[in-house]
């Protein structure tokens, strides 16, 4: 017996030895791939054996559990072993190669083909049980115009921070919690997110424009180059392209970064820089970063910028948001002006920007109570989340990555919730503190000294004797009142009130030689006030405008530094002289002129536009010509050989503009460093505009005669378009557009082209269009009534997820009458058309429907041979 | 007896290997260190081998190619953990090339590097040189130069090659265009594995000042927005009015940078403006060189390095709240042509 055992042992031992060696070599190999293969990635030591053990045990236990019960929405992926092996055969490169797989998505029952891969350069994304996934549906099988999906292992910080960003009305991927099953085995809780690409931009009502990705971290780090994204345009790549320029054209980014750097030191550059910024949006974004303690948008990482030449603005796009784990105590919550990158640092230097930022932060904390709101919403879904977490086999600590139990993970979530509440309280306290304002007085000079982040507002000066006639802030510290320095009058009262906001300087400095981590620090700042006489101050009352608490300034002999370049006193009651430009008679326009003031153009005014000249209005324009005294925009040269550029209305301040009885002749379009105009008359990012009784002739070079983009509420009435070079009217991402009583004759391309817009088109005459009379495309909705279409190549086209209702219209001798089809895969389906009570006449009446489109015809009259092609054409 | 010893030795050896592997598998720190030092050692060994092969460029290149192939197998193709060492080794080889034949042989390495990572700046420079050696058309050469400039607009290597080549070609338009870019584009510098720049890299867009006095806590005031070739006021507001006896200017500039200090004015808390007499101040640097012209002083830097320019005043200035430095930053010429 002993001998048998001994022999068995001797024979068994080598195999046992071999299996163990292979297992342990596997650990070494795993660790090598995790920490030593990727470029520029450092990973701390990781203990794989406990991780594997706990994970395998969980999977084993799950097989006995209630796996069939659905808690969170489920995504069922079916991936072959070969595919999984391929993806991890040579990481990180093999992880980026698309592989075939199948999916049952959410509550659908149909099995769909997909292409599938892992995402992310960080080995954390594909080294553990739960891998970060990206898949793409087929072009003809998209869900709600979304083709790409990303699934990140559930991180409570990322999830809640994304929710906070969404509640702050910022551009961020939508997120929802799902449970992923792979080959019918529970793989854990994930966050479903969108891929940030052109399709994302379109879904968020952006035109296809440049979306820059700034990553100089981990595997995307460039060797030997300055690491700061905001100091080197060469570090950025594009994930979406402006379709009117070459893909490798980075001029907009180069110019912007140059402007950004110059803006630190120059008022002029800063003003120019601000024209690229939607201040409200960026203030709201900065407020969110503080609220969420999201410092994950650094100077080398997680930067996404949208450059939109249609409204001339640059927007940040939030990716991989976070809630700082180390902000777990009051003293560790970052300051209100914390700047994770150069862009935020620059903005934080400006008092007007700070004012807006604090306004939004206060709103988020007090009025909207965002943190409590998202926690409340989160609480509602927590129950089913916990049920799914209990069977999640791949739970790891989101920061330190060690394997943890579901109980520990739930505790972690609770800690995060408490952390958010603590952050909320700390920030609220910070906003409500007493501003640190002191004063001192010498003769007729009064000095206020302010320190800290919170401004002092609405100062009221009380005097021992009679109040002086006036006081004024000596903003240039030269001891006298200069033009532009505002006086505040006592008006016979005992006190002088000044509705101002005073902010202390934000000065960029570092206390050590790691300059990259320098911050904009709130510093002791002095404000000199000159009094009309040397009255003695009794007391100075001021307000914290966020808490609405009033205080009195302390008298103290301290003195701060004068204000910095970008720190200006905010005078709230200041009524800017509403200067109105008035144009009349003959105006010669040479070059591109940008007009910031409101403008009135008198009847009979003639603008003679020199070659490539343009007028860009950024404020309201009232151009009401008369029938006998029209306002004209024409070529400077009578022979009309030198084409001019564009007349443009850009920005919300142009809202309410009107052009009536005007003529536009000989224009083209233009491009500046900031804007792109593809038409003779351009309406960008504006609302409530009326253009009526006007004519458009002889445009060339650029596509459109009249281009609307990002508009709301535009009436185009009684217009005449003659021989448009391309499209007569191009309407992009706009709503509530009305085209009424107009004539379109001989457009080379389309008479009216809609992209992702809503419009009504009534009582128009559309004749001899080279392509379409009306093109309703890319998710547009149109109502067309009482129009006449004559001899167009195609009268009405409806495509790409669009719909049109046509009533009481006449279709006469067009080559094709109605065509519904799918062209642009990004919109999922074809077109839907409903035509009622209309009249068709022609040698052949061609109506086509294909590629998942529908045409319904009801109570129409056909005078000619009917030639209906395709599926889904329903007669009556 | 010998058999017994051999037997026990074999058992002992086998068990040692066995326990070592188990230990490595369980002890993550030890495993990490073993792997890191092994890989580091292997990289260092390769560097020595390649250095020793030089000046035989062919031998060194072959050695490097073997290294690349092995590390691709060991790690992964494309950008991997060994890319940085491969790049540095390629730099070692390139420095020693002295003839066209060797350079064309070296082009194999350049091709591999470009495939691994199209964002390697020096690899782009080498590609330009190879294109010139292969007499590629001017348009192709310009395209390569523009790609290198796009990646790092402030680095000088692409400009040097472009200026030298196109001056011979009498393409004055392109020559002047390159000159203008060289003298105006200051974003996109370089960085070093061995010297930690004060900023994110060696760059011509930022600098800092440190006012000093006895017992004054060091504070470094950062200034961004340098405009090249223009005398500008760079105004620093201090966080509180301070007594100072000198200023250190901290830079991490690119080689061939020049700073002309035209004047320095102070504003004190009483809003008085005081001009610092530069002539009576003592100015020194750590690694750069100075030139005086009249009342102004120029500092010329020759290396990628962190530099401290110290200006020691003759006397102390009290309650200074602003420092206005009137400076001109520029780049030294690359050629003897006036615009360049």
Structural description of this entry:
Chain A is an alpha/beta fold and 876 residues long. Chain A has five domains: 61 residues, no CATH class; 355 residues, no CATH class; 135 residues, no CATH class; 168 residues, no CATH class; 101 residues, no CATH class. In chain A, 20% of the residues lie in helices and 36% in strands. In chain A, helix 6 crosses helix 7, helix 8 crosses helix 10 and helix 10 crosses helix 12. Chain A is flat and about 125 Å long. The model of chain A has no long low-confidence stretch (mean pLDDT 93). By secondary structure, chain B is α+β, with helices and mostly antiparallel strands. Chain B has two domains: 157 residues, Serine Threonine Protein Phosphatase 5, Tetratricopeptide repeat, CATH 1.25.40; 126 residues, Jelly Rolls. Chain B is built from nine helices and nine strands. In chain B, strands 1, 2, 3, 4, 5, 6, 7, 8 and 9 form a nine-stranded antiparallel β-sheet that branches. In chain B, helix 3 packs antiparallel against helix 4 and helix 5 crosses helix 6. At the A-B interface, helix 1, helix 6 and strand 18 of A face helix 1, helix 2, helix 4, strand 2 and strand 3 of B. Strand 18 of chain A pairs antiparallel with strand 2 of chain B.
